[in-house]
Write a structure and sequence with these properties.
It is built from seven helices and nine strands; from the N terminus they run ββαβαβαβαββααβαβ. The chain has 193 residues and is of the alpha/beta class. It has two domains: 142 residues, 2-enoyl-CoA Hydratase, Chain A, domain 1, CATH 3.90.226; 44 residues. Strands 3, 4, 5, 6, 7, 8 and 9 form a seven-stranded mixed sheet that branches. The protein has a two-stranded antiparallel sheet with strand order 1-2. The protein starts with a strand and ends in an 8-residue tail after the last strand.
Length: 193
């Protein structure tokens, strides 16, 4: 969707769904979150915000992925001056939930059949005992930070979030609304606002 021209400037490829989405001030975050997805989404948000401060719609349908990449997207959504409208579609799982929180609570929408899931960060570290110990401490810090973010954004207590996210905690869109993840369940774009 993005490429660099001879001068090193980012250009949106002509044609295709990516450029049409950008013209509509819409960003799609789909699939597994990794560094490439973060780079693409951050670039799109930066370009859209430079062009205008009109609202940007961000559709999220993701099974999660790399924590730091997801937090980079979250931070960029908060960083831009444009109002961000997040719409959960299909599933918003794991690190996709903090990405969803990149929009203010009033601007967090869910399509009716979207499912949400919170859980503790997963680790897959091997190696020397000292390295495993360091990685375990980092995972605990990330878990505590994410639990605090979820509690702040939903109005739940940190203790409840910690207990709920100890295992995979799935929610329907209605349950996510009740939990405080979502501000409104919508069936049509006309319901945004």
């Amino acid at each position: 969707m993005f490429r660099q021209d001879e001068d090193g400037e980012s250009q949106v490829d002509k044609g295709g769904i990516g450029s049409k989405l950008l013209k509509a001030r819409t960003v799609l975050i789909a699939g597994e979150i990794d560094q490439d997805v973060a780079e693409r989404v951050i670039g799109q948000l930066a370009v859209l915000d430079c062009n205008s401060h009109d609202p940007i719609r961000v559709f999220i349908t993701s099974n999660g992925g790399h924590v730091e990449s997801g937090l980079a997207i979250h931070d960029m959504m908060k960083f831009v001056e444009s109002e961000i409208i997040a719409i959960g579609a299909g599933w918003v799982v794991s690190i996709a939930v903090p990405i969803f929180f990149g929009a203010e609570k009033a601007n967090r929408y869910s399509l009716p059949n979207t499912r949400f899931m919170i859980h503790q960060p997963l680790g897959g570290v091997g190696g020397q005992a000292a390295d495993v110990s360091i990685a375990a401490k980092e995972i605990i810090k990330i878990r505590e930070s994410l639990n605090q973010m979820i509690a702040k954004e939903t109005g739940q207590t940190v203790e409840k979030v910690a207990a709920d996210s100890d295992r995979n905690y799935w929610m329907t869109s209605e349950e996510a609304l009740e939990y405080g993840l979502v501000s409104k369940i919508i069936k049509s774009v006309k319901e945004i606002g």
